[in-house]
Structure formats: C-alpha cells, structure tokens
Amino acid sequence: MPAQAHTSLVSSDPAQGARLEQAPERIVLTFTESLRQPSEASLLVDGTALTAEIDVDGPRVVVTPPADAADGNYEVNYRVVSADGHPVTGTIEFAVGDADAVGADEPTAGARSDAGDSDTDDGSVWTSPLLLGVLVAAVALGVAVLLLVRGRSRTSGHERS
Predict the structure, then answer these.
(1) Which residues are paired to 41 by β-bridges?
(2) Quick one: 13 and 84 in the same domain?
(3) Distance of alpha carbon 101 from its chain centroid, rounded?
(4) ω into 38 cis (within 30 of 0)
(5) Which stretches does UniProt call biased (Polar residues) (predicted)?
(6) Is 78 domain-assigned?
(7) CA Rg, the chain, in Å?
C-alpha cells in the first residue's frame, strides 16, 4: 500500500524567526491542502495564552491577535487535520518589538507525518520511540507479574490438598 502524504506547512506570515516592530493584525499559516475540522491554533506571547480569533479557510489557518497584543516572543501552536483525517502539529515563533528573536536559524516549522519518514512528527504520542519502548516494557512487566502470581497460586493450591 503506498504511503499517503499528509498536509504540511508551506509558509507562515510572519515567517518563522521573524522580528517585527509591531504586533501583526493577523497571522496566516498556509498548508499543502485544505484542512478538515477540528483544525485549531493557539497564540501565546511570552508564554501567556492570548484570546485570539482563529479561522480555518481551506488550506489556511488565520489567527487574529487581540488589538492590544503586546510586544514579546510570539508562539503560534497549531493542530490541523489533513484531508485524510490525519492530525499534524507544529509551532511558529517570531518576535515583536524588543523581544529576543526566536528560532531564526530554523526552517519554517511544520510537522509532517508521511509514512516512513523518520524526521516527521504527526503530534501523536504513539509515534514517540521512547513512549513506545516504555509501553512495551510496562506490558511485558505486567505479563511477567501475572504469570508469577498465577504460578504461586497454583503451587499454593496443590500444597493445601
């Protein structure tokens, strides 16, 4: 079965790592395909969540910050759903005013989840190798304890007879 390509971030305005003199009237994230619901985004400035208007229109997510948005380090976190229903997450960071520029050396942040591509992240905790290893170890430990308890109860039952 061929791998299906999921949506990925094509561009953002402002761009990843940009430094602006004033807060933008809107932040636009553009993806490779039209998005499905529930696609969403959140806006933080210096780690504090702001109430922003979020509009998903075809392949674009438009984030409108509040009119009184302050200077600082901006972070737009998104979780969008591909046309095939697969969730994709990522973050865009930029600075406004005298804030430190963030991620200026990084390419446009956009997570993809193409099957077989180990450099992608679909935002799912089930794709984390560490989590998968811990989960397998926990199941193995549970099975071992269960077998040990059952073995002891069978042995105890025979001794009473």
Answers:
(1) 78
(2) yes
(3) 22
(4) yes
(5) 1-14
(6) yes
(7) 23
User: In the sheet where 87-96 sits, what is the strand order?
Assistant: 19-20, 87-96, 72-81, 36-45, 48-50
- Give the span between the Cα atoms of 8 and 144, in whole angstroms: 42
Residue identified by tokens 């099957």 is: 115
Q: Among residues 71, 97, 87, 76, which one has the least CA distance to residue 35?
A: 87
Full domain range(s) for residue 97: 9-123
Q: Which residue's entry shows tokens 């200026």? A: 104
Model confidence pLDDT, tens digit, residues 23-76: 999 999 999 999 989 999 999 999 999 999 999 999 999 999 998 888 999 999
Q: Poorest-confidence range of 68-77, 99-108, 143-152?
A: 99-108
134 alpha-carbon distance from chain centroid: 21
Lowest mean per-residue pLDDT among 4-8, 44-48, 111-115, 143-147? 111-115
> Dihedral, CA atoms, 79, 82, 83, 84, nearest 10 degrees?
-120
CB 63 within 8 A of CB 75: no
pLDDT of 158: 56
